[in-house]
Write a structure and sequence with these properties.
Length: about 375
């Protein structure tokens, strides 16, 4: 939420007091009794003891992180003296709405948030509602960069401090097929979707911001795909749109349409229906590594500073990231894992393992987070098509 400042012609002392009070109520500076200056002791044992004295930690998370119960139970087992106040919410956008409403009521309830990098960055980082997370990383196995892919921590923000990305998901053009109707040899490049044979025979999710937008941002910025492909795809191919994933899946599985763009297949795959996602490695265009819902942030004015550190460090540890991987155990999640490199192979599906010989395009970056140019392009292309 964008903040604006109003300046009053008051006596200097009164004006300063007013500004400080406004900033406190708005969440830009810490209220008395809240540790937001990194003054907590840095020895891990001291932090855990102080967290146990605080007695609780509050974590909000989107349900798309995975089966949250797996993560919550693993934390409770590890730290039984710290009460976990966990709140699972459908989408990050709904979390944003909830937290902003709480803060307008001067309620600062949340310590840590697990959610989508884009919505978290655009709402909380730009709204100055976060404390830097990097100084909270104190556990050696978390701070050891050799444990992470390509030897670094990844943040969405340019400062490399606030929106930490821990999830590694494989991305390619979001193309799904009816396996009885499509020969994959006819789709070796994403540009093959523009072949006249597919005109009027494809369905697509009605595109909108913060809802499977990562895949479209990936394609928009991809050097081998880009805006030209999206403009032609949405304007020339006579697409049929759906808003309900179940409807799109039913149309694809029944053979009403042979190709779907931006589907979700979990239910159909569980039922053994003839549908499949085209592997990102199948296309000649380079695949991407990104994070759909795998960002972690530290809210400012968080009520449990030490317990927040304990949760963050545990969650980003090998044990915590194993719990995260185990919370994503469906067929649809098989390309999702952690950015950590030391998870046991037994918990990481083959499809999620990063290949040494592939030059992946990294998606979760601050200069790729603006949905507006993508949304404007697609809107103009749809209007041109008459749909």
């Amino acid at each position: 939420m964008k903040k604006t400042q109003t300046w009053f012609c008051l006596r200097p002392l009164v004006g300063i007091r007013f500004i400080i009070a406004w900033m406190v109520l708005s969440g830009f500076v810490a209220r008395p009794g809240f540790a937001a200056n990194g003054a907590a002791p840095q020895r891990w044992e001291d932090i855990v003891k102080a967290a146990e004295n605080e007695g609780a930690v509050t974590v909000y998370a989107t349900n798309s992180v995975g089966d949250l119960r797996v993560i919550w139970e693993a934390f409770k087992k590890k730290f039984p003296k710290i009460k976990l106040n966990s709140v699972g919410i459908s989408t990050t956008s709904e979390i944003v709405t909830k937290i902003m409403a709480e803060r307008r009521a001067n309620q600062f309830l949340v310590d840590v948030l697990l959610g989508a990098p884009g919505a978290t960055y655009n709402s909380f980082y730009r709204g100055k509602a976060l404390d830097p997370l990097a100084p909270a990383l104190v556990l050696p196995e978390v701070t050891d960069l050799s444990k992470w892919w390509k030897g670094k921590h990844r943040y969405v923000d340019a400062e490399g401090q606030y929106v930490f990305v821990y999830q590694s998901s494989l991305y390619g053009p979001p193309v799904y097929i009816n396996t009885k109707l499509v020969n994959l040899d006819t789709l070796r490049s994403v540009w093959d979707l523009l072949d006249p044979r597919w005109k009027g025979k494809m369905i697509a999710l009605w595109p909108r911001a913060n809802y499977v937008s990562t895949a479209l941002l990936f394609m928009y910025h991809h050097p081998q795909i880009g805006p030209k492909f999206l403009e032609r795809f949405y304007s020339e191919m006579d697409l049929t749109y759906f808003s309900d994933f179940r409807q799109g899946t039913d149309w694809l599985a029944s053979g009403k349409y042979p190709v779907c763009f931006l589907c979700r297949l979990r239910r159909a795959l569980e039922q053994g229906l003839p549908v499949a996602e085209v592997s990102p490695y199948h296309f000649k265009e380079a695949p991407g590594i990104g994070s759909n819902n795998g960002a972690i942030v530290l809210m400012n004015n968080h009520p449990h500073p030490n317990a927040a550190k304990v949760f963050i460090n545990w969650y980003l540890s090998r044990e915590g990231q194993i719990a995260f991987r185990q919370a994503n155990n469906t067929k649809e999640d098989e390309t999702t894992t952690s950015m950590r490199e030391d998870l046991p192979a037994s918990v990481v599906p083959e499809a999620a393992r990063r290949r040494k010989d592939v030059d992946y395009i990294e998606i979760s970056r601050h200069d790729w987070m603006d949905w507006k140019p993508v949304g404007d392009l697609i809107k103009a292309a749809r209007q041109k098509s008459g749909k």
